Amino acid sequence: MTKLDLFKFMPFRLNRLAAEVSAELASEYGERYGLDIPEWRVLATLGFRGDACTAQYIAYCTRTHKSTISRAVAHLLEQHLIERVENEDDRRELALQLTRKGRALYEELIPRLLRKEQDILSCLTAAERKDFAQMLGKIEQRLDLAQSTKDARAKKGAY
Description:
The chain is 66% helix and 6% strand. By secondary structure, the protein is mainly alpha-helical. The protein has one domain (6-156): Arc Repressor Mutant, subunit A (Orthogonal Bundle). Helix 1 (10-33) crosses helix 5 (100-121) and helix 3 crosses helix 4 (66-78).
């Protein structure tokens, strides 16, 4: 019988790497701002988009279970970091957007997280970082994952 060496199995390695990178980044927003990973994913998605979207869209883009996103949304609403607004395309549905407080937090965090990302990737040369990004893009494309807001809107509707 063939044995599976987990330490050479790409899905295992990617999952472990993603968990560790998320934990590293969480140290930036968790300790100082009291945010957990799902809450950050909601803020990051709303901040990146720059406009309102549904929790369903956030769950789709971040590949986070909708109940986890729902709990994060509830906490962020309590903290007045996000707010609900009428969805312009479907008035029966509420969308989410950053509040002024949420936008300020997002803008404060971005430089810190980009520095942390650079620190994590500092073991790679500039060429290796470029190649790594291209390889990740190819795998994402092969798995039909959205690689931009435009992709996500096309795959799952405008939200």
